[in-house]
Amino acid sequence: MKYCITLICLLLSITTFGQSKDEKAILAVMREEERVWNAGDIEAYVNLYAPSDSTRMIYSTGAVYGKDSILAFYKKYWPKERMGQLTLDGARLERLSKRYYYVSGFFHVKSPDGKMINGRFSGLMKKIRGKWYLYTDHSG
Question: How far is residue 82's CA from residue 91's CA, in Å, rounded to a whole number?
């Protein structure tokens, strides 16, 4: 029994301490995405995107480039009364370089009328001046 408890503690510490500083920061951005979305603050949500004209959001019928266009898209298709509650899970992070991580996982939005929208997301996180941002966001 003592051996099992030690093994469990070791495994938990590996998963917690096994994450790099960058991976923890990226996961914190994802938690912030959930928090601001669930608060209905679409401006704060879009501020998590990289401040670049090449930043993009890819969706089923096209793509939107630049934060201003992404914000306009969200305001048009996701007004505050429709946003609901966002949950991101199953996140996978793969380091591509010092400045880029590939991320993927699942999203779930429970709309105010109780309907669930479930799907997958993938994209690139980009480190700019020591801070991680969404650079390419693909959801479907």
Answer: 25
Q: Give the phi and the psi of residue 2 in degrees, each rounded to 5.
A: -60, -40
Tokens representing 127?
């480190």
Let me know: does 51 contact 131? Beta carbons within 8 Å.
Answer: no
Kindly report the length of the chain: 140
Residue-wise pLDDT for 20-31, tens only, equals: 999 999 999 999
Does this model's pTM top 0.85?
A: no
From the list 29, 10, 18, 20, the residue with the least C-alpha distance to 105 is: 29
CB 75 within 8 A of CB 42: yes
Q: Pairing relation of β-strands 85-95 and 62-65?
A: unpaired
**If pLDDT is split at 50, 70 and 90, which confidence band does 66 have?**
very high
In the prediction, which pLDDT does 140 show? 83
Beta bridge partners of 89: 106
Q: Are 130 and 34 in contact (CB under 8 A)?
A: no
